[in-house]
Amino acid sequence: MAVRSVALLSLALLWAGVAGALELQVVDAATGQPIAAATLVAGGMQTLSDVSGRAELVEPGARAGKVSARAPGYQRRTLTPAGNGALRIALQPIQPKALYLSAYGIGNAQLRGDALQLIAHTELNALVIDVKGDRGIVPYRSAAVAAAGLAQPIVTVADMPALMAELKGRGLYLIARIVVFKDEPLAQARPDWAVRDARGELWKDREELAWIDPFQREAWERSLALAEEAAALGFDELQFDYLRFPDQAGLSFSQPNTEAGRVAAIVGFLDAARQRVARHNVFIAADIFGYVLWNSDDTQIGQQLERLAGHVDLLSPMLYPSGFSFGIPGHREPMKAPYELVEHSLQRASARTGRGLPLYRPWLQAFADYAFDHRAFGAAEIRAQIDAAEAQGTQGWMLWNPRNRYAADGLKAKTP
Predict the structure, then answer these.
(1) pLDDT tens digits, 382-392
(2) Given this model, what pLDDT does residue 416 score?
(3) Which sign does the torsion angle of CA 231, 234, 235, 236 carry?
(4) Sheet with strand 39-42: strands edge to edge
(5) Between β-strands 39-42 and 45-48, what pairing exists: parallel, antiparallel or unpaired?
(6) Is 252 within 8 Å of 198 (Cβ atoms)?
(7) 156, 286, 339 from 104: Cα distances, Å
(8) How far apart are the first and last CA of the chain?
(9) Tell me, what's the pLDDT at 5?
(10) What angle do CA 21, 27, 29 make, to 5 degrees?
(11) Distance in angstroms (rounded) separating the CA atoms of residues 107 and 156
(12) Alpha helix (H) ranges present in 128-285?
């Protein structure tokens, strides 16, 4: 019986090869060196390249369709095999250096144009775009929103595929920011899924916005469907924000509010998202509080660093000095030490996860202080954060300004 099984397996592999098995090699376009652990997707199958950059997809028909390849530090690439030989895929190195644009910012010609002008003349090469913002707004007419039974009274982008094509034509790395559990429209439409206060009433945060209970798995569908939609639109990366429990005590959820339960809910969502978009071969990222890098527990919100690290391609800690209201060890006044705050936070994170800093791409502050002395955050402070992040070898960085207004302050001019 065992001999027969081996023979059948050999025949199956031989038949797969004849029917269109695909040999691949992934290399660095700049150096020609092989890229190990690149993720390759074709014909409904996924595999990783070995240390020589090689992989084989043996599913019948793999050669007939498109092949997608991605690896940390490189631009994702999709192409169609030609001929019968091995397919060599050269990936362009990139360290994403991004600006954030909200649903309003991406739809506003002036704000979008100013951002693109800044990108054209500085070291910037990427955009983070709200696909679902803090108030639940999706900028384009969305089938995923309609499927959730929600209205779209605000649409800021008339033709999202055309805009994506334009941005891709500029060579930009595009990140879809998807706010998950802070979801006022869904909580109002489905109050049975919403977070409650101690009295059982619908709870709202400091911005008077309701949240979805992260334990309610049925409520995940809205964000998962949007993630799939964003991946199909051509975004390189899906970045989940507000992927956490509210940072307030005394709230009521559908399950006991324990640390183990909270962490399981957050990593469960990430696993569901990865499975949902696997065929699109996009990067998965999660935004986390800066203090998550310093706290050994889940910071009471379900974000426990070591547990999260194994479920994403990238973690994006929010390292805004204004957000560190208690400072960090050795720096109780973080506004006076933006370089050290970023440096020490990333060093601590790297020591804890043991996966190296390419796992991280931090959010950096590009807005005036709100927590301490209300100082303007200018060229010196912005550059200090960038220099600290780059000195630690991160996978790029992102600038946050909620008003979507940026200047060249602290940025290097684009090199020819």
Answers:
(1) 999 999 999 99
(2) 78
(3) positive
(4) 45-48, 39-42, 67-70, 77-79
(5) antiparallel
(6) yes
(7) 6, 22, 31
(8) 66
(9) 35
(10) 130
(11) 5
(12) 143-147, 160-169, 184-189, 221-233, 259-276
Matching residue, tokens 């936070």: 345
Tokens representing residue 214 in the block: 């992260």
Look up residue 331 and give its two tokens: 């720096």
**Ramachandran class of 377: left when φ > 0, alpha when ψ lies in -120 to 50, beta otherwise:** beta
Query: pLDDT under 50 in the chain at which residues?
Result: 1-18
Is-contact 378 334, C-beta < 8 A?
no
Collapsed DSSP state (helix, strand, coil) of residue 348? helix
Strand order in the sheet with 87-91: 54-57, 22-28, 87-91
* SS3 state at 245: coil
Structure tokens at 317: 């800690």
CB-hemisphere CA count at 13 Å for 183?
Answer: 31
From the list 406, 305, 416, 331, the residue with the least C-alpha distance to 97 is: 406
- Between helix 221-233 and helix 160-169 the angle, nearest 10°, is 50
Give the pair of three-digit tokens for residue 211. 């949240």
Give the C-alpha separation, 133 to 185, whole Å. Answer: 11
Tokens representing 3? Answer: 């001999």
What pLDDT, on a 0 to 100 scale, did the predictor assign at position 60? 59
CA-CA distance, 191 to 180, in Å (whole number)? 16
